[in-house]
């Protein structure tokens, strides 16, 4: 018979195990994926213009390393790390990969709030204010010059402008885009339209949409978003294309309640209800239209060039099936893109190492992401009209390399490339404004009797309310 | 051996085998050590739960309260006074979100409260295959919510959806379902009820099966029909369970998020399915405005606490 003492010991042991497990679980929950402190050894110069001291050991954590599922991209990443380490053997690159979409806004916001971003982290152009509000990025102005980034003079000033605040630079670009009109060439041909000449005006879009929808079998001519704040995003792009604006120059008043804003909504309403050429399924957001056009159920929609890579690599579509033209109206278009920022609190050596890596990987023609011959050999897409931020000699070299190694029919994007449209940044309080404009977009696409004047009046009043409380 | 108990601080009888040292009573320190030994197991088990609650429930609640009165701009966190609440009240979507949430709650109560009860009453009448039918009713609860919602998204599609195909077959006009501001919320409630009614049905069924059969026999002898039996026997006998589920349902439905988020991509046509929790999500994760999200969360907490207080008061008065 077991003694009471033994039973007590057993219970105490069980309690200890439970407590230890609970504490371990809690401790592991609180473990940061990225060290906040500096693990650099040695002491390099704190002078930003001085080169990185080769004696200083630096470890950089960087996100958006390709996941294992993207074997070819991951192989290229590892090759780039090896090549980089030949010049900088003292820098250890620790890539962090995320399955699926590398940057998901809700996760990004939580990451900033928890200060768990890696040393070098990926962001959208529009994320700057959010990052600064969370004290997340360091000012790298003093570290970026013609020595650390030799192609600096050949990079469009616009992509740096969006990375600056109060004259301070906070990011280096990796990609940029402007929105255009994506077309399904197969459906264009079937509908008797010329796929090499995408519609250039909204009247032409409407006429083409009618013809494509007439093919039947559930095919829609034109598609548009109206949910998840994406409707407001595309309203803005279309408004820019017609020469309009969303917010006035002061940034304090709505500027879309005009003839152009009315035209944006009216043409969508008419295509949906008078022509019945937009399909019955609405309340769509990013990802929905890509699936439709990739399966030959949609003729046209507004998109950035990299949607093509997504549709081919993720949805199994073929490059030959897509064409790209400038955004109809062509008075202006939304531009956007991605960049890398460096975590606030990083040591000067870490910043220097990060700038060196970003320069090698993303900003040098013929190297890293611009090593098109390697990309072609790895059977990855070459020939998309983005990234497209080089000018001058760098652009000439990159264009030539890209054309020589193209893995897709680049002539399908000729209309887009030959007719560049001036890019325009998003309005202030973009997501909040898009949320309001979503209502107007969803109304005209789901309600035949939508009162467009009233919708614009309401949206204007609501946007003014938001802007007044900035 | 009795279950370990927390020390009350009072002197207790010495355990068997205890022999006081010669020369007088045990010193206070020994008494304390014995008390600790006696209660170490209970404290050991308790500490894990307390830590979990502290980190994952109480700390976030305190943090939310603090955040609701702070703002963070350009890396500086400062006290914001009432400005977050002012922002929330001035948001054009604020009242619409509350109206939509109230509409969802009312519809969900009408459908989600009544339907499981009726189903449970019907199931209770079956003499055969009750286990199979119970499984059938509970099956949707076992499906991942996202799968269930996406299934309904397909059913509701105005182009190729099942529901419009059925209406077409019956020569009835097709509906816009989720894409009409007039029917979007009702469509969300129908999907939600189908997904969640299994659990409530089983609870009602358990309550029904706990009603003594003699009560029904007595009612029958008094000449009561089916509806009078339900009204005079079933409802009073299950009143406690009904009230509890009603409260739980109000609290759960006022926090609805998954269904509108997946069925209508959040806001729905003209914002007709924007709920309070979806608005909180928008503030925090799309607008990076944690202060406003916390302020709205606090308002929701106050409203839900109000419902809980009403419930507690009602249940006390019914006990009296």
TrEMBL record, chain B:
* InterPro entries (UniProt xref): ABC_transporter_permease, MetI-like, MetI-like_sf
Which CDD domains does the annotation name? TM_PBP2
Q: Which residues does the annotated region (Disordered) include?
A: 1-26
Query: Gene Ontology terms, cellular component aspect?
Result: plasma membrane
Annotated GO biological processes are:
transmembrane transport
Q: Which residues form the ABC transmembrane type-1 domain?
A: 98-311
Q: Where is the composition biased (Polar residues)?
A: 1-10
Question: SUPFAM superfamilies per the record?
Answer: MetI-like
Annotated membrane topology: Multi-pass membrane protein
Pro residues: bias regions? 13-25
Q: Which UniProt keywords apply?
A: Cell membrane, Membrane, Transmembrane, Transmembrane helix, Transport
A Pfam family that this protein carries is: BPD_transp_1
| TM segment ranges | 40-59, 102-123, 135-156, 185-207, 238-257, 290-312
Q: Where in the cell is it found?
A: Cell membrane
The family assignment reads: Belongs to the binding-protein-dependent transport system permease family.
* Name of the protein in question: Binding-protein-dependent transport systems inner membrane component
């Amino acid at each position: 018979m077991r003694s009471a003492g033994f039973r007590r010991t057993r219970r105490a042991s069980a309690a200890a195990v439970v407590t230890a497990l609970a504490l371990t679980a809690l401790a592991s929950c609180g473990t940061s994926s990225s060290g906040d402190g500096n693990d650099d050894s040695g002491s390099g110069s704190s002078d930003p213009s001085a080169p990185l001291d080769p004696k200083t050991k630096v470890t950089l954590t960087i996100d958006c390393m390709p996941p294992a599922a993207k074997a070819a991209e991951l192989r290229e990443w590892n090759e780039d790390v090896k090549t980089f380490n030949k010049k900088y053997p003292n820098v250890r690159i620790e890539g962090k990969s995320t399955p699926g979409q590398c940057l998901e806004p809700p996760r990004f916001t939580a990451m900033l709030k928890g200060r768990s971003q890696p040393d070098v982290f990926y962001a959208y152009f529009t994320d700057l204010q959010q990052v600064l509000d969370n004290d997340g990025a360091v000012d790298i102005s003093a570290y970026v010059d013609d020595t650390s980034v030799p192609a600096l003079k050949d990079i469009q000033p616009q992509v740096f402008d969006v990375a600056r605040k109060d004259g301070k630079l906070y990011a280096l670009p990796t990609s940029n885009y402007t929105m255009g009109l994506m077309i399904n060439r197969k459906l264009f041909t079937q509908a008797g339209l010329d796929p090499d000449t995408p519609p250039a005006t909204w009247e032409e879009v409407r006429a083409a949409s009618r013809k494509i929808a007439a093919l039947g079998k559930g095919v829609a001519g034109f598609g548009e978003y109206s949910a998840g704040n994406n409707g407001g995003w595309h309203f803005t792009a279309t408004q820019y294309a017609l020469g309009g604006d969303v917010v006035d120059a002061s940034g304090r008043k709505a500027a879309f309640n005009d003839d152009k804003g009315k035209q944006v909504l009216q043409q969508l309403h008419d295509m949906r209800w008078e022509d019945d050429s937009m399909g019955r399924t609405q309340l769509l957001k990013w990802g929905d239209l890509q699936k439709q056009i990739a399966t030959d159920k949609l003729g046209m929609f507004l998109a950035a060039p990299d949607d093509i890579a997504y549709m081919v690599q993720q949805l199994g579509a073929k490059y030959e099936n897509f064409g790209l033209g400038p955004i109809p109206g062509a008075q202006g278009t939304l531009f956007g893109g991605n960049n890398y920022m460096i975590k606030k609190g990083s040591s000067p050596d870490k910043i220097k190492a990060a700038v060196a890596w970003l320069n090698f990987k993303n900003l040098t023609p013929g190297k890293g992401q611009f090593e098109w011959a390697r990309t072609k050999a790895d059977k990855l897409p070459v020939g998309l009209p983005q990234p497209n931020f080089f000018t001058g000699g760098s652009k000439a070299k990159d264009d030539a390399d890209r054309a020589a190694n193209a893995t897709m029919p680049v002539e399908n994007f000729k209309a887009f490339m030959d007719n560049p449209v001036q890019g325009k940044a998003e309005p202030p309080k973009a997501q909040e404004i898009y949320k309001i404009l979503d209502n107007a977009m969803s109304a005209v696409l789901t309600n035949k009797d939508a009162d467009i004047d009233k919708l614009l009046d309401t949206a204007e009043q609501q946007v003014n309310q938001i802007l007044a409380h900035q | 051996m009795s279950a370990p108990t927390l020390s009350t601080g009072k002197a207790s009888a010495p355990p068997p085998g205890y022999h006081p040292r010669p020369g007088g009573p045990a010193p206070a320190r020994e008494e304390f050590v014995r008390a600790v030994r006696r209660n170490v197991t209970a404290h050991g088990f308790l500490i894990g739960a307390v830590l979990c609650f502290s980190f994952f429930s109480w700390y976030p609640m305190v943090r939310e309260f603090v955040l609701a009165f702070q703002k963070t701009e350009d890396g500086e966190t400062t006290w914001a006074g009432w400005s977050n609440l002012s922002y929330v009240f001035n948001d054009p979507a604020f009242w619409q979100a509350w109206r939509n949430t109230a509409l969802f709650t009312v519809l969900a109560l009408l459908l989600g409260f009544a339907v499981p009860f009726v189903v449970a009453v019907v199931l209770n009448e079956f003499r055969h295959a009750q286990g199979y039918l119970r499984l059938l009713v509970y099956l949707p609860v076992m499906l991942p919510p996202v799968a269930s919602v996406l299934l309904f998204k397909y059913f509701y599609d105005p182009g190729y959806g099942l529901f419009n195909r059925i209406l077409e077959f019956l020569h009835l006009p097709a509906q816009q379902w989720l894409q009409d501001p007039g029917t979007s919320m009702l469509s969300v409630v129908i999907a939600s009820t189908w997904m969640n009614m299994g659990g409530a049905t089983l609870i009602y069924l358990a309550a029904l099966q706990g009603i003594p059969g003699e009560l029904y026999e007595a009612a029958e002898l008094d000449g009561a029909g089916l509806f009078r039996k339900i009204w005079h026997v079933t409802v009073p006998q299950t009143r406690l369970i009904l009230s509890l589920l009603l409260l739980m349902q109000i609290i759960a439905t006022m926090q609805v998020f998954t269904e509108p988020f997946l069925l209508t991509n959040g806001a729905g046509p003209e914002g007709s399915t924007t709920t309070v929790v979806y608005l909180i999500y928008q503030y925090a994760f799309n607008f990076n405005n944690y202060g406003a999200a916390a302020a709205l969360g606090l308002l929701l907490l106050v409203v839900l606490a109000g419902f809980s207080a009403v419930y507690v008061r009602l249940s006390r008065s019914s006990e009296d």
